[in-house]
Amino acid sequence: MSAVMTTISEGEMDARTKPALRDEGARLGFRLTLPAQILVLFISAFPLLMQLYISVTDWSPLSGLGWWNPWEMWNSFANYTDLAADARFWSALKRTAIVMVVCVPAEFLLGLALATLFADDFPGKRIFYSILLMPMMVVPAVAGYMFFMLFQSGGPVNDILSAITGTPVTIAWLSDPTLALIAVMIADIWQWTPLMFLILLAGLVGVPEDQIKAATLLGANPWQRFVTIVLPKMKTIIIIALAIRVIENFKIFDTLYIMTGGGPGVATETISVYIYKVTTQDLIWGYVAAIALAILIVLSIVAVFAMKRMARARQMAA
Length: 318
Description:
Shape: flat
Order of helices and strands: HHHHHHHHHHHHH
Oligomer: single chain
Strand content: under 5%
Mean pLDDT: 83
Distance between the termini: 50 Å
């Protein structure tokens, strides 16, 4: 009887002490990580708050004031009203949207086609896999210089077109407003399709094979299996891949700037190039801070939308 009572009392003590020990462990973990949390919060919050502060002033490095005294040049929300009426800003945003609308779907479709091809084994797969990933490894500035040389009037692109047509082709790709933007988009698609391919291939490999085999036994053709099984299972991966490329396309700069510098004129000036020019040439840092915050809000909305879609896709998959 006493042994039973001892066992019961020990069980009651365990039930009481385990939550207390768990809480104490949580408090200890919080205290140990608190310095790192404060540091991360400072690193992320301070620049954002400083940017918000500067965005409501006319401060610039040439004003003679320290970065801690921009309040002396307070202009309320004039930068934001100027931003709403800035035709050059809206044109740059429009060109960025055009690049995004063309490049992201093209990279997705090419990446999905290549991922579907590489999901099966074939001779030389590893070699082709390594070759396919090489463009992603190239530094964007180097890729920009490569395509700058390719699209010269006497460059390889025109030489290939001359060989195909049988007549001399001397198209000034980077001097034509429309063709220059097309050349930039070709360079972006070439470099970042491998990233889309890599992400989609990871999702494709994770599709359960037993479901595909079951659908095959039931008489489903490859297209039906792809639409009814593969795509629904890859929905979360697809959203992640598209969100990454949409956000990255907003930041396209290196390749474009090396190839065209935003020209001819402002024909290829995207929002990143526009911000760079206003920052380094005009030195209107208060206005630049307002532009950057506006872009941050837009990209945050895109990220939140993507996260909601991901959560909904997971619920449907479950």
